[in-house]
Specification:
The structure is a single chain. The chain is an all-alpha fold. The chain has one domain. Helices cover about 70% and strands about 0% of the residues. The chain has eleven helices and two strands. It has helices at about 20-40, 45-70, 75-105, 110-140, 145-165, 175-185, 210-235, 240-250, 255-265, 270-295, 300-325; strands at about 200, 205. α3 (about 75-105) packs across α9 (about 255-265), α3 (about 75-105) packs parallel to α11 (about 300-325) and α4 runs parallel beside α7 (about 210-235). The longest helix has about 30 residues, at about 75-105. The protein is globular and about 70 Å long.
């Protein structure tokens, strides 16, 4: 968000023209279609394939950031890059939960990327809805910044509490509300049936385990949307940049999962870092709101936020790798099961 001025309700600005919005949405949809074509034939993902797609999905948003910087100026460029870094960091948290769900539902390796793609698509849709709601709130409610700040600080406290508890998190399928609800209305077959969500059994339509895991992933998407959208609105008030950072951070998750799968369990301090980042952005939002009422209240510049976020992520990555340097693959999971 711009530290030079305070945008009160009804003054929300955006660099996104109708044409730019249309081009961006079409581009995102095209990339989703490409991903579905790639996963049309179920197959196990090789590290070479995952690295190739990951490189593409990292280069694309960075190139977009360079364009934003050159087209709209350094302020918007820094806001975009900072927001993208925050969303990318939170997306790794998504991957932890996706990993737990894939293991709990015993998803075959050949179907893993299809499940991830469904989760990413659902996340994009939900983020778009929450972004629109957030923009409307900022335009009409002067205290919307305080609401967002409270959401982030509460989430940070929960993350920190779960991290300090140190107990291993597991997914109990039978206790998940979404799964119990589905089973009340339709029977479920025991075996996966390729990419099919339903099959006919004894003359009656039944769900496959793939349908259950996809619904469970969608349920987690709702939780992550509630966390991530206020976080990026704490960096920029521009709805277009908020959407762009979310879209680019999510689109590369399918490939990133297979690149990081072996390393995910080693990032044991990531939850501490994310808790600090969310709390920091919550404080930034609170100061921004207070500055609009009392001009003497200081604000945190976006460039300073970028430095803090990078520093925190570097520190928790290094300490995690040091703490698990002698650990075997598949070390204990410490990220909270937040679905």
């Amino acid at each position: 968000m711009t530290e030079l001025s305070y945008l009160s309700a009804g003054e929300l600005s955006s660099v996104g023209t109708p044409m730019l919005w249309a081009v961006t949405i079409v581009g995102v949809l095209a990339l989703l279609v490409l991903d579905f074509l790639v996963t049309r034939k179920p197959h196990e993902v090789s590290i070479k394939e995952a690295l190739g797609w990951s490189a593409f999905y990292i280069a694309l948003p960075l190139a977009f950031g360079v364009w934003v910087w050159s087209r709209f100026g350094s302020q918007q460029g820094v806001e975009y890059l900072t927001g993208y870094l925050v969303e990318k960091s939170l997306s790794v948290d998504n991957l932890f939960v996706f990993m737990l769900l894939l293991a709990a539902f015993a998803v075959p390796a050949v179907l893993a990327q299809r499940v991830l793609l469904y989760g990413i698509t659902g996340a994009l849709v939900l983020r778009a809805v929450f972004i629109a709601l957030g923009a409307a709130a900022l335009q009409t409610l002067d205290f919307a910044f305080l609401i967002f700040a409270a959401i982030l600080i509460v989430t940070a406290v929960k993350l920190l509490r779960d991290a300090l508890s140190g107990h291993e998190q597991k997914v109990d399928i039978n206790k998940m509300r979404s799964v119990r609800l589905l089973r009340r209305f339709m029977p479920v077959v025991d075996e996966y049936q390729g990419t099919r969500m339903t099959v006919r059994q004894n003359g009656r339509r039944a769900l496959t385990p793939l349908a259950l895991v996809v619904v469970a992933v969608f349920a987690t998407d709702i939780v992550f949307a509630v966390d991530s959208v206020p976080a990026v609105y704490g960096i920029t008030e521009d709805p277009y940049l908020v959407f762009a950072t979310n879209a680019f951070a999510l689109l590369g998750l399918r490939a990133l999962y297979f690149v990081l799968h072996a390393a995910l369990s080693r990032l044991v301090h990531l939850s501490y870092g994310l808790a600090f980042i969310l709390a920091f952005i919550g404080v930034k939002l609170g100061l921004h709101w207070a500055h609009g009422i009392w001009p003497g209240v200081p604000q945190i510049p976006t460039l300073a936020s970028l430095g803090v976020i990078i520093g925190v992520l570097v520190v928790v990555t290094l300490t995690s790798l040091r703490a698990t340097r002698n650990a075997a693959p598949g070390a204990k999971e410490t990220i909270a099961d937040r679905h």
